[in-house]
Amino acid sequence: MDILKPTVYVILLLTVPNTWSYPHGAPIDTCMTMLPKHRGTQSQLDRSLYRVTVSGTSYRPGSTVKVTIDSPSRAEFKGVQVRAHSTLMNQEELVGEFTNLVPPDKLIHVSCQGKKRSMVSHSNNETVTSVTVDWTAPSQNIGPVIFDVTVVQSFFKFYFGLHSVVVQPDPSFGPIVQPTILASPIKSYVSPIDWSECGDTKGCLLYPRYCTGDDCKVGVSYRLNTTDSTARFELMGKVDGYLSLGFSHDMIMGEDQTISCSAMADTVTIQNGFNHNMKYNSRELRTNLTNLEAAKVDGLLMCRFTRPVIMNLDVYIEEFGDADPTPFTFDLADDMHLFLAWGKTYTLTDVIGYHYEMPVVSESKVNFSKNRMYRGSVMPRLIRAHASLMAVAWLGFAGLAIILARYYKDGFNDKKICGIKIWFHIHRISALMTFVLTVSGLILVLIKLDGKITQDESAHTHMCLGFTVVSLVCAQVLAGLLRPGLESKVRPIFNFFHRLLGQAALIISAATIIYAYKIADFTYEMQRFGERTVAVWAGFFVFFEILFVGYKYFASKVLVFRPGSDEYNLDKLSNNLEPDETTSPSHILLFCFIVFIACSITAALCMTIFF
Ligand SMILES: *[C@@H]1O[C@H](CO)[C@@H](O)[C@H](O)[C@H]1NC(C)=O
Ligand SMILES: *[C@@H]1O[C@H](CO)[C@@H](O)[C@H](O)[C@H]1NC(C)=O
Ligand SMILES: *[C@@H]1O[C@H](CO)[C@@H](O)[C@H](O)[C@H]1NC(C)=O
Ligand SMILES: *[C@@H]1O[C@H](CO)[C@@H](O)[C@H](O)[C@H]1NC(C)=O
User: Fold this and answer.
1) Which of 89, 385, 507, 523 has the smallest count of CB within 10 Å of its CB?
2) Is residue 227 within 6 Å of ligand 2 at its C-beta?
3) What residues does the Reelin domain cover (predicted)?
4) Kind of pairing between the strands at 218-225 and 203-207
């Protein structure tokens, strides 16, 4: 049931976790982002309501700088986060230690990145007008330092990205000591990616399936370098905010490494991260990613990076507290599934938000030593099977059953097979096929959802319409089997309702299909493809109905009510209003209709094959 999990994950994301608030302080995953995720609330833009002041503009080894957060207008606040980082090197790394938190019952320490007391957060939701903390400088000169602050005024109002002035190391401090691993700078230029080398000098995962490179929605390429045990990756996506590459040991999202290209306006950063089980993505240090290039040009997000073949992530699994991190290893010598997920960033930040569209998952595990072309899909296999069965049933057989019953009762020269008219054979087989495919499709989707009706609101309409269609088709088949005899008085009533319900089922099924594409986690391209397919199908269906009605009318007018016309040489009809082969409906039209049905089914199947 593994293949189901990406959707379950997305549905969970849509329904549960972004309603958290944190009266007891900020969780550890905000160490890197400083962004409260309060039901998707965006940061306030005003930068003058709160201020961050420091007691001195320079520091010495082990000296203390007092940091005060308050408001010139004495505005109150409930939550706060404070951290310090160098403005020169490894800006993601937190430096120094906080002590002397005032008021002590309002604030707590958070240990970020394995460093004790490297961040301060609130511990309750009581209101304050000012907080003060002492920052103790490290024992080495780490260059200029700045304090980042987020202030939470109320659940729906927070101020992100407040800063102190830069605090310089005292000149007598000695030279700046570089960290052992220096984070690479990100170049803001990406030369075009050559996708024609896919399968040759590099391996690729491209989506959708028919695309070859620049026409793709998203794509990733990789090239292993065995000399220095690194791999070079290239990412491309026609996406708004961010594009994430996930390395996963299974097809489930969770416990995966992610490397993301994330845009804040036109500036793009590259972030290392980790997908927690069924929860959220936490940002991790990107220290070991090198040769970074990232840019967004004309709505196209691109980036390149080199990663070591083996990467170890020390991840804090617990959201709060001082528990030790858990190590995870992502080794490209193991085959892994690649994920591509994309979504929006929070306003004015490069913090990646939830992805509402389903992620692309490579269909098989990727062997990074082979330069192969891999393809992925956003739809789990059972959902694809569901869609295919329903499309064949409703864009195909249902229409055929209706058209045959409506216009071809007099067709096929009234020939019979096994004592039953041909039209009725076709009608009955089509109707039964519709029934069987619909019920199988329903069973597949129920298996996929583990029998649970989805909570996803965007799927609600599709589900209600779908159940209506299923009920109608069951009722129709049952009624068809139990139909009253030809002589029965209720037969005309049966005919009327049988016809009405059949037509209703077809129309509702078209609506059901349209609403299927509105389920939020389908990509925009899929929605467009699907809606157009159904629109064209419906247009043609109506067109054919007009042709059939027109033909019937024309045939009866011309052939029956103008008997004796030389032109048509139909003398023998003059006294005979019974239909016979000359008034029989057009076989050419039926042939065209069947071609149309075949095309519709093909288009619908393309959907499940391409995406
Ligand atoms: C403050 O937090 C407590 C739980 O710690 C909660 O019961 C209370 O409703 C919160 N108050 C406000 C105003 O949010
Ligand atoms: C592989 O890495 C080595 C050492 O860094 C480098 O000299 C070489 O050019 C790289 N090979 C490729 C194909 O990039
Ligand atoms: C980065 O590489 C160094 C040395 O190879 C290693 O000690 C460290 O754990 C790595 N860090 C990450 C986050 O992979
Ligand atoms: C990946 O492909 C290489 C080269 O064909 C092969 O030697 C290796 O065994 C494969 N790796 C796995 C895990 O199958």
Assistant:
1) 507
2) yes
3) 16-185
4) antiparallel
In whole angstroms, what separates CA 88 from the centre of its chain? 36
For the whole model, what pTM was predicted?
0.80
- The protein residue with its alpha carbon nearest to ligand 1, atom 4, reads 23
Alpha helices (H) along 380-519: 381-391, 398-407, 422-448, 460-481, 491-516
Single-letter code of the amino acid located at 450:
D
Q: Which of 305, 318, 197, 204 is CA-nearest to residue 261?
A: 305
With H, G, I as helix, E, B as strand and everything else as coil, classify residue 377: strand
Residues of the chain with pLDDT under 70: 1-21, 39-40, 278-279, 321, 413-414, 454-455, 520, 557-585
Cα–ligand 2 centroid distance for 466 (angstroms): 56
Q: How many helices (H) and strands (E) does the chain have?
A: 8, 28
Write out pLDDT tens, residues 317-375. Answer: 877 767 788 899 999 999 999 999 999 998 888 888 877 788 999 989 999 999 999 99
Give CA torsion, residues 383, 384, 386, 388, to 10 deg: 170
Tell me the CA–centroid distance for residue 23 and ligand 1, in Å: 7
The Cα-based distances of 171 to 53, 89, 177, 197, 477 in angstroms read 22, 18, 14, 53, 89
